[in-house]
Amino acid sequence: MYIVTAKEMYDIDHFAMTEIGLDGKLLMENAGRAVADRVTAIVKDTDKICVLAGSGNNGGDGFVIARTLLDKGYAVQVLQVVANDKILGDAYYHKRLFERCGGIISLFDGKCTSMITSNNVIIDAIIGIGSKGILREPLASLVHYINREAKKVISVDIPSGLPADEGKGEFISIQADYTFVIGAPKVSAFLNHTSPYYGKWEPVSIGLPSRAFKTNTSRFVWGIDDVRNSLPDRKPDDHKGEHGKGLVIGGSKEMPGALAMSLKASLRAGAGLITGATTEGVIRMLSANCIEATYKELSETNGFLDNRTDVSLEGYHAVAIGMGMGRRTCTGDLVRSLVHTAECPIVIDADGLYHIKEDLLDIENRRYPTVITPHPGEMAMLLGITVNELLLEPFRYSREFAIKNNSYVVLKGMITIITSPEGEQVVNMSGNPGLAKGGSGDVLTGIILAMIMQGQTIFQALCNACYIHGRSADELISEKHSYHDLLASDVIDGLAKVFRIIS
User: Which Gene3D superfamilies match (predicted)?
Assistant: First the structure.
């Protein structure tokens, strides 16, 4: 499933019509009929329906929806919210069809009408992705009235007034209960401040060819089929050396558990051999608890890792660093040294990110893959901006950072955005609020470490790791846990079921 900006959606439509030869009236017919089919699944036969139609393609879709529902026997009327001379082209064609089929159209007179409260269902086909700036009167008052008084609101493609793209913090928008997205979801469906306005959403296909999307966007959602198509199968004659020898560097006297969770998660996710490199005290605490891992003792200062002795990375296929190590100066020296010298893929998380913030040039110049896994606070720290600024444009900031610093970025959050050094972006939608607990990120880093040592590209490995991590939480919540009691260690235990599901 692709994710598009407003411009990309216009370009996709244009490509389909000019390069492929699909007629605009046909696409509008397909869109309206597809949405109408979804509407019939969530409304009653006895419901009275009012379609709010504006100008442009969104209004045209509304006329098709109204005609289709009318043909199915529903009580439907249209409230046209723009003047007659604003309905042009394909939208005008479908307006005339609706009228010829006996449809009734009322013109909005600028006042909040009783049609909003006298109908059980409001279908919002006012603006779509063509919204520019904050809604002006009289539409602003109409939207406020709908949000306050309407019983059920269904938006077509995108709630009217909501920006399709990131970067816009002020708007007046329909608050939909359901949104049926035309062709592909828009970027705003994945942003913290705009996604709630969609309500429950799902995309509908209108016959746009996949070639049109591949030509115009490099942003998409990663799902279970993508995992199945990219995750390597295990062969009967495989041995542990073929599934990677990984090193996890972290832990301190204050946070030994972070290292333990990364070690366990990596082993559960399929790593062949995993070594925990940490202080002598942490090894004593963990060795009896995680017996499948091996351990390497590193030098320390007062219970925190330092750089007094060289750390050999010879023989390891990948390294993860940062979990629970703290922010002491002596520890920072170790992190920067390892980032500079590691001749294998390296995953940097948690306190490791804090230690590299002043030395990003070392990441940019690395000849081997670098993966960073920040939450929004850590990403904002690396960029020198506020969290609010980041969350307003997470796709742009992630992409710019990944390209500039030659790194893979896994930006964790309500949804996770994975970005390659070439700027390709994937959204992972598995997971739930139960993951908002300490240790969840340590578990994800362990899974990532295991995945990047298997036979897949680094980008595929990151996408698969994020999906598997979130899917484990989803399965646990559906079976025996709640958002409140789910622990990071539970997610590790839940990995077994996820691998059975995807195999």
Answer: 3.40.1190.20, YjeF N-terminal domain (3.40.50.10260)
Domain, as residue range, for 181: 6-217
Per residue in 288-315, pLDDT tens?
889 999 999 999 999 999 998 788 899 9
| Domain at 19, CATH number | 3.40.50.10260
Domain count, the chain: 2
pLDDT of 469 > 80? The answer is yes
Do 185 and 62 share a domain, yes or no? yes
The answer on whether 58 is annotated among ligand-binding residues is yes
Which CATH number fits the domain that encloses residue 441? 3.40.1190.20
Q: Residue 75 has what pLDDT?
A: 96
Please tell me whether 258 is known to bind a ligand. Answer: yes
Alpha helices in 317-423 (DSSP H): 329-341, 351-356, 360-364, 376-383, 387-392, 394-404
**Residues 161, 42: one domain?**
yes
Whole-prediction pTM value?
Answer: 0.94
Pair 69, 200 in one domain: yes
Tell whether 415 is in a known binding site.
yes
Residues 131/161, Cβ–Cβ less than 8 Å: yes
* For residue 96, pLDDT beyond 90: yes
Q: Which residue has the tokens 């240790």?
A: 439
Any known ligand binding at 416?
A: yes
Establish whether 132 is an annotated binding residue: yes
User: Is 59 among the annotated ligand-binding positions?
Assistant: yes
Q: Is 128 annotated as a binding residue?
A: yes
Is 57 flagged in the annotation as binding?
yes
Rounded to the nearest integer, the mean pLDDT of the chain is 95
Instruction: Tell whether residue 60 is among the known ligand binding residues.
Output: yes
Closest by CA to 437, choosing from 478, 485, 476, is 485
Instruction: Determine whether the annotation assigns residue 129 to a binding site.
Output: yes
* Average pLDDT estimate for 63-74: 97
